[in-house]
Give the backbone structure.
Amino acid sequence: MKLIIAIVQDQDSPSLVQDLTEKEFRVTKLASTGGFLKAGNTTLLIGVEDDKVNDVISVIEENCKTREITTSLLTVTMPGDTYIPYPLEVKVGGATVFVLDVEKHVRV
Ligand code: 2BA
């Protein structure tokens, strides 16, 4: 068995969770925050048999879009210690996916 951890954008998560559950994959949705943008995103935990990993990744690919986000994360220091926000374009997504081996899975 494998545990798929997928970090996706909040906008993509409702359709992705719906597609996964319709295809009878079990999924747990966690609210998370990206370290770089410090904006909310969604982390999904999906436990599947080894031969289903690629099916899950295909569903993720179908639902998760790449988006350009403009953020004012960078600041420019001006004389007199004035900080001016500097717009920064960042490409986010479609999804960041980790596939981990599961040593043991128990449902009681
Ligand atoms: P964030 O950390 O908020 O990153 C958002 C986007 O900012 C990233 O999109 C990437 O395009 C950019 N970015 C991140 N760190 C950067 C840096 N040090 N310098 C320049 N640009 C940077 P994605 O790569 O699609 O990542 C989306 C979200 O997935 C991330 O949100 C984070 O929550 C998660 N993530 C991505 N890679 C990860 C990793 N290796 N481990 C854990 N979480 C990861």
